[in-house]
Specification:
Blueprint (H helix, E strand, L loop, with lengths): L1 H30 L5 H33 L1 H17 L7 H27 L7 H25 L8 H6 L4 H10 L4 H10 L12 H24 L3 H9 L6 H27 L1 H21 L8 H12 L2 H12 L5 H29 L4 H8 L6 H4 L13
Helix pairs in contact: 1-2, 1-3, 1-4, 1-5, 1-10, 2-3, 2-4, 2-15, 3-4, 3-7, 4-5, 4-15, 5-11, 5-14, 9-14, 9-15, 10-11, 11-12, 11-13, 11-14, 12-13, 12-16, 14-15
Length: 401
């Protein structure tokens, strides 16, 4: 179960990392002679917003599906979704077609996280959960790291980019295996056997005592999601625009250094929360992410010697959140709505992210295409986490109910 969830999230990471490294090449290729310099940032924002919007809807619906038909089966459906529609990206003829496909990919990307996290959380003893949550948190960034290595050896250019989308369809094999052979969560099976009634509807999360927990979960997930996609992810198209055709592998190198730090950070996020406490750790992560993201955009620049080391450090600290969330969010909700609650928290955060990315795209134009100004301003999103976390209940002693 852990291996299947880890691989599902790693391939999730491949889909998430695809457009940051390929967006500029895709846009130049599809627009042809009509391409203008500002189009790179505008279409990157649109592709990302479409993915986030799909992830928000898919995570909520497929998370609820996991409470209805089982975590493993919903996870298999999610993997097939993101694989099939990513592969179709190799056939697109316009940026608009690619934007629609990124939305469809997002449906599966969003559904993978809550079902994988709920499945594994319910199958491991409490003493092991910080380590296991760290492994799952690292999964997405292992996928991004693997993609960066592929991009370094086989550069993605305006003349050659369709192959990377065809390759992104390969995880469909894992989806079939999960549907056919992966055991279901024993805790979910026991819950359904005892209750002998249908899974609760999504609206239950917005009623009674669960309303406050759901609101807190959404806010805690929104801060790192908006910070990452509306802010720090702009470093890769920034690196691509500066290095250009003279160093076509530099954008992949930038993603590699970020993903290397992110793999370490997302693994350590859950153990850090177990060591110093859920709320204190989130607060400290927010301070570090704000400072390093601002420094990455305002104190250095692509091709400067200091750029890649700061990219590595920012990736390490800002992704501690994504090891923290797989540990904390399942603790926030009871078993009967655990996958739905985690899915809604993570993926309504992505609705905000879609809006944030579009707003960042508008800011990009307002700043005259200045990536450094945009990134420095968006770094302040992480500072909101320093306030939000003190509204969250402490679950350190309670663990998984």
């Amino acid at each position: 179960m852990l291996a299947a969830a880890f691989l599902g999230l790693a391939f999730d990471g491949v889909e998430l990392g695809l457009m940051p490294v390929a967006s500029l090449s895709v846009t130049k290729s599809l627009l042809g002679d009509a391409y203008a310099e500002a189009d790179g940032g505008v279409w990157f924002a649109r592709f990302t917003a479409a993915l986030m919007l799909g992830a928000a809807i898919g995570g909520s619906l497929l998370g609820n599906l996991g409470d209805r038909i089982g975590r493993a089966r919903a996870m298999g459906v999610s993997i097939l979704f993101y694989s099939a529609f990513a592969g179709l990206g190799a056939l697109v003829r316009s940026c608009e077609e690619m934007m629609v496909l990124r939305f469809m990919v997002g449906l599966g990307v969003g559904g993978m996280w809550p079902n994988g996290v709920a499945l594994v959380a319910e199958c491991w003893p409490s003493a092991s959960r910080p380590t296991v949550a760290g492994i799952l948190g690292a999964g997405i960034n292992v996928g991004i790291l693997a993609l960066s290595q592929i991009g370094r050896f086989w550069p993605i250019t305006p003349e050659s980019w369709r192959w990377i989308f065809a390759m992104a369809a390969v995880p469909a094999v894992l989806g079939v295996v999960v549907l056919a052979a992966l055991p279901e969560s024993p805790k979910w099976l026991a819950s359904r056997s005892v209750e002998k009634k249908p899974a609760p509807p999504l609206r239950m999360l917005f009623q009674g005592d669960l309303l406050r927990l759901t609101a807190i979960g959404i806010l805690l997930a929104t801060v790192p999601l908006v910070g990452a996609w509306a802010g720090s992810k702009w470093m890769i198209p920034w690196a691509d625009s500066v290095a250009g055709s003279a160093e076509p592998g530099y954008k992949a190198a930038t993603q590699q250094w970020w993903a290397l730090g992110a793999t370490i950070g997302s693994f350590l996020g859950a153990p850090l929360a177990g060591w110093i406490g859920r709320r204190r750790s989130y607060f400290l992560i927010s301070i570090g992410a704000t400072a390093l993201t601002w420094s990455m955009f305002r104190l250095t620049a692509p091709l400067e010697a200091s750029f890649l080391p700061i990219v590595f450090a920012q990736g390490l600290v800002a992704t501690l959140y994504f090891g923290w969330l797989p540990l904390y969010l399942p603790e926030l909700f009871p078993t009967q709505v655990r996958a739905s609650g985690a899915g809604v928290s993570m993926n309504i955060g992505r609705f905000a992210t879609a809006g944030g990315v579009l707003a960042a795209g508008a800011l990009f134009t307002w700043f005259g295409g200045d990536y450094a100004m945009l990134g420095g301003a968006c770094a302040l999103i992480y500072a909101a986490g320093m306030l939000v976390i003190w509204w969250a209940p402490a679950t350190d002693e309670r663990g998984l109910g």
